[in-house]
């Protein structure tokens, strides 16, 4: 049974979310401000955090940053308004997903289930080690390194990276990526834009001039394997012994 931490200073909202999540089979802890959220997260090690953007003490952006610094716990951000800046701010701090207030508690529960399922689902058949120059992604173990240093990727960042690495040379528009990676048949395309930007900051030598995750103007994004690489290969590199 997964444990979810709900962080919201509106007691009514927190109570409704708590009830829906418990009815769906989750264990739920609650916090009403930023410092309390960090304390409870430290004690309970939640599997996912539902985090309001506007909080007393520490706002949701800072709480999200500190949670992500501790480990790869999935975060769904609640934004009070539908403004793009709020949504992007939540994604930029490392949130895996966001829901805009007012929201449907049922929809939020489905989002929680979706993020947790993607984080813990068994690897698909044929999952293996994907390589792109200094980047090594183990799809089965859900780990990624660059120059042998571990990369801190969110659930969605990891899924997006694996999906693109498995389809080298093919351009996808943002709606296709939302459907294939997020499982959404509709949604905000800026979600994909922000995740691509965050991935570039972590895997590119120069994020302002990307060579791996390139923009295809008028279409979307494409993974270009490094020159000489065998794209999508799960083979281990050859050793000096052959």
From TrEMBL:
A Pfam family per the record: Response_reg
- Return the SUPFAM superfamilies for the record: C-terminal effector domain of the bipartite response regulators, CheY-like
A Gene Ontology molecular function term for this protein is:
phosphorelay response regulator activity
Quote the InterPro entries the UniProt record gives: CheY-like_superfamily, OmpR/PhoB-type_DNA-bd, Sig_transdc_resp-reg_C-effctor, Sig_transdc_resp-reg_receiver, WalR-like, WH-like_DNA-bd_sf
* Entry annotated with the keyword Transcription regulation: yes
Q: Which UniProt keywords apply?
A: DNA-binding, Phosphoprotein, Transcription, Transcription regulation, Two-component regulatory system
Spell out the protein name for this chain: Sensory transduction protein regX3
Task: Report domain Response regulatory positions.
Answer: 3-116
Q: Which CDD domains match?
A: REC_OmpR, trans_reg_C
**Any Gene Ontology CC annotation:** protein-DNA complex
- List, for all copies, the residue spans of the domain called OmpR/PhoB-type: 127-225
In the record, 4-aspartylphosphate modifications are located at 52
Q: Look up the domain of life of the source.
A: Bacteria
Q: Which GO terms describe its biological process?
A: regulation of DNA-templated transcription
To which species is this protein native? Answer: Frankia canadensis
PANTHER family associated with the record:
DNA-BINDING DUAL TRANSCRIPTIONAL REGULATOR OMPR, REGULATOR OF RPOS
Per the record, DNA-binding region residues lie at 127-225
């Amino acid at each position: 049974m997964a444990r979810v931490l709900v962080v919201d200073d509106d007691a009514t909202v927190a109570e409704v979310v708590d009830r829906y999540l418990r009815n769906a089979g989750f264990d739920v802890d609650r916090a009403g401000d930023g410092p309390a959220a960090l304390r409870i997260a430290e004690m309970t090690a939640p599997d996912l955090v539902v985090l309001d953007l506007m909080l007393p003490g520490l706002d949701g952006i800072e709480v999200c940053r500190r949670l992500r610094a501790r480990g790869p716990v999935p975060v769904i951000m609640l934004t009070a308004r539908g403004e793009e800046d709020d949504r992007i701010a939540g994604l930029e701090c490392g949130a895996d997903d966001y829901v805009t207030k007012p929201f449907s508690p049922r929809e939020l529960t489905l989002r929680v289930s979706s993020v947790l399922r993607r984080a813990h689902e068994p690897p698909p058949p044929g999952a293996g080690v994907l390589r792109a120059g200094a980047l090594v992604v183990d799809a089965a173990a859900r780990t990624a390194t660059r120059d042998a240093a571990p990369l801190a990727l969110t659930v969605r960042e990891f899924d997006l990276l694996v999906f693109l690495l498995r389809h080298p040379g093919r351009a996808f528009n943002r709606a296709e990526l939302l459907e294939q990676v997020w499982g959404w048949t509709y949604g905000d395309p800026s979600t994909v834009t922000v995740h691509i930007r965050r991935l570039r900051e972590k895997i590119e030598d120069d994020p302002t001039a990307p060579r791996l995750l390139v923009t295809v103007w008028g279409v979307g994004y494409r993974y270009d394997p490094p020159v000489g690489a065998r794209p999508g290969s799960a083979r281990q590199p050859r050793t000096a012994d052959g």
